[in-house]
TrEMBL record:
Keywords, comma-separated and alphabetical: ATP-binding, Nucleotide-binding, Translocase, Transport
UniProt entry tagged with the keyword ATP-binding: yes
SUPFAM superfamilies in alphabetical order: P-loop containing nucleoside triphosphate hydrolases
Domain ABC transporter residue range list: 3-237
Alphabetical list of InterPro entries matching this protein: AAA+_ATPase, ABC_transporter-like_ATP-bd, P-loop_NTPase
Protein's UniProt name: ABC transporter ATP-binding protein
Alphabetized Pfam families for the sequence: ABC_tran
Lineage: Bacteria, Pseudomonadati, Pseudomonadota, Alphaproteobacteria, Sphingomonadales
Reported function: Part of the ABC transporter complex HmuTUV involved in hemin import. Responsible for energy coupling to the transport system.
Record-linked CDD domains: ABC_Iron-Siderophores_B12_Hemin
Length: 256
């Protein structure tokens, strides 16, 4: 089931954030959205999950318009890890992760399948040792892993994440990217907003680059992730090389 958008325009506080943008994402692939601050990345994600209604255009899941679905159905199909997510309830971590099953839970509460999904999500995000700790007492990086586990517990067909690497140490950054890649390989769609160009090059199958509310470039990572395109998007000179291990390195050198 593809996730597509056509002719999206969004104006906030008198500023046009998205300018009649159109695109399509495919399941089984990781798409990374790049762009300078204020390019419209987070606003696009908000429209893709139905949190913001654009002034024009529409978002579709398959052949159905997203806003024609009720919130429970959308919650089963699309999971969102927002930018700077907050935990407001001082309950244990396992309870927080279990909230990801709410769109699936029946009238009598969580089933055995729901509990199994929670345990699987916690293991995938290295949260097992946090299960009984109070969520509000965790570090920012630990909270980030817990909230990713909450999204994964919902087993959505589409996982959207806005800056999921924020507050994570380097080891857990690699863990999260590996988990997102694995999630896509099982046939789900993954869309991620990142600022780290090297990490984007390592995880992305596809890249979409926004500039001032428009799509500057979109396509396969190897076709879009070029010094010329990145220079235009960010206003910096970029060098693209590879590490001794053969991994891409994308290094901003200077302002243009």
């Amino acid at each position: 089931m593809s996730l597509s958008f056509e002719g999206l325009s969004l104006t906030l506080r008198g500023r046009k954030i998205l300018k009649e943008v159109s695109g399509r994402f495919q399941q089984g692939r990781v798409t990374v959205i790049l762009g300078a601050n204020g390019a419209g990345k987070s606003s696009l994600l908000s429209c893709l999950v139905g949190l913001r209604e654009p002034q024009s255009g529409e978002v579709k899941l398959g052949d159905r318009t997203l806003l024609s679905m009720d919130s429970r159905e959308r919650g089963r199909l699309i999971g969102l890890l927002p930018q700077r997510p907050d935990i407001h309830w001082n309950v244990d971590v396992k309870t927080i992760v279990g909230l990801g099953r709410l769109p699936h839970a029946g009238r009598w509460g969580m089933s055995a399948a729901d509990h199994e999904a929670v345990l699987k999500a916690m293991a995938a995000t290295d949260c097992n040792d946090l299960a009984d700790r109070k969520a509000m007492r965790l570090s920012g990086g630990e909270q980030g892993r817990v909230l990713l586990a909450r999204v994964l517990a919902g087993e959505p067909q589409w996982l959207l994440a806005d800056e999921p690497l924020a507050s994570l140490d380097p080891a857990h950054q690699f863990d999260v990217l590996d988990r997102l890649k694995s999630y896509a390989k099982t046939g789900n769609g993954v869309i991620v907003v990142l600022h780290d160009l090297t990490q984007a090059a390592r995880v992305a199958d596809d890249i979409m680059i926004l500039k001032e509310g428009s799509i500057l470039a979109a396509g396969r990572c190897e076709d879009v992730m070029t010094a010329e395109v990145l220079g235009e998007a960010y206003g910096v000179e970029v060098q693209i090389t590879t590490s001794d291990a053969g991994e891409p390195l994308v290094v901003p050198v200077r302002r243009l």
